[in-house]
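Budget justification note: compute hours in this period were largely spent on complex prediction jobs such as the one shown. Inputs:
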Amino acid sequence: MSADTGSLNLKWSNLIIDQLLKQGVQYFCLGTGSRSTPLAIAIADHPDTQHLVHFDERGVGFHALGYSKATGLPSVIVVTSGTAVANLFPAIMEASNERVPLILLTSDRPHELRDCGANQTCDQIKLFSDYVRWQDDLPCPTTQISERYVATTIAQAVFRSRHGHPGPVHLNCPFREPLFSLTPPSLSDISPTLYETTQTMPAVSTLERWAECFQNAPKGIIVVGSLPPHQKMDLIFQLASLLKWPILPDILSQVRSAGYIHEVIRHYDHLLKAIPSYKPDLVLHLGDRLVSKTLGQWLKTLECPYFQISDHPCRQDPDHIVLHRLCVDPSLFCTEIAGFVKERSPTDWFACWKSASDQIAQHLSTMIDNQTDLTEPGITRSLSNHLIPSWSLFIGSSMPIRDTDQFLFPKQPIGPIFGNRGVSGIDGNIATAIGIAQGKQQPTFALFGDLAFLHDLNSLAQLRQAQYPVVILVINNHGGAIFSFLPIAQRKDVLEEFFVASHPYNFQSAAELFQIPYFRPHNPRDWEQLFLDLLANPCSAIVEIQTRRSENLLLHQEIHQSVLQCLNVSHMAT
Ligand SMILES: Cc1ncc(C[n+]2csc(CCOP(=O)(O)OP(=O)(O)O)c2C)c(N)n1
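Corresponding output:
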């Protein structure tokens, strides 16, 4: 092969990276390997790129996911050929389900080396199947194809990752050897193809019809499911205040970060278990998924019109109860519909919800905040009491997301709240949190369980180099506590070994291996003091809190029983 091949590989890769930058994409997450050499050199040599390099591609994928979740902008993932590509799959699945923009540049061997026993070569074409929004197998770098082809391909990739139905895009990039040359190639300054975007507005006829339905429903509720962190919360509150409808905000709705906590229904999970008889005459659901199973089951029992607004076309209706659906930005909808509804006078309906919510909040505060032992609900409440706006919060699946959904209602504004609920994996949590910190350019608290922590140990290597501090708060109950809450807990003979995966580990030596500060508070006072110190002087750290699964189960049951008692059920039922 001609010696010019190396130079051409670099020239083509420079063009790809330059076009990505011209499309506004700046952050590059790389695994290491040989076949991706031309892309790695192009990223290293360009003065405007920012990058992360990590040896484990699974962690690279989740880091990029976290960054893009936090910013709403695509980050670029660059990996070598072979199993490195497959290691991206979990993050791609999450990004696809959550509509997170990502650009994957997977290096490959040229066509003549595929399917003939060449080293580190496998079929990478369409590997991610329908999990990506657009995909292409690029030609090997060549002078026979116009450079404009590269420009329009990158423009299309970025556009398809961000607009319409956002998500990951996959460009497979084959390179022939020699992979690079020490002589720098001449650079081409190619103009990018710029896509204009449009904003979808709700039709006036829809707004008129929906407003009439809303006006005729004095007992409406607003359920806010997961929303990206760029929504304008005031607009949701303004609409709720016009209609005098209670707001039930999911932990990932961003509503709870806004500091309007006295205007929403707190602890609705407990409230609905105690008073399932509250029956609205209309449900307005803004956004996507709901963490609370209790809320989901209660919504399913209602026989009233159900309206859902989300800015994408995907079905977010696992119980098939939505009757009216609008694909538009939820905060834009709230602004527009507000011009069509009249302000309602205060109602008993709203007052009943509010009074029950306040009563539970008061009860839980007395019951949980003064405990002498460290408990999982207690930790969640302390986050609620002390977090501040300059920190993001990442919450792992399993008990942490359920506990925060039930107990985290901060009185003060806090930073954005994130989770990986697209596919609810317990993998990649450490890397996702570090990517979020990088994207938000602020420190991040990450709360998850011990199995989730063990699953992503490799990503502690990223934590050591993280530019923005990440505090990992790992609740070590020595296995998957969630399973004690599931029907399988009745099969005590198989529970521990086949489900809980119980283990004897603590994480001090993991922290030592990666040279990360480690703390293990033993009581609520020490934990709160440490928490306040970390908030005041942010630094990356691992904080391990040990709890017991059996006591955790009992405490949750006690909380449930005591809330039932605290609410005078017969009096409250309407
Ligand atoms: C990648 C992946 N593997 C398995 C599961 C199934 N799963 C859900 S929760 C859970 C246990 C999580 O344990 P831990 O992180 O310790 O949290 P805890 O349940 O103790 O709160 C498991 C294995 C999953 N969601 N994702």
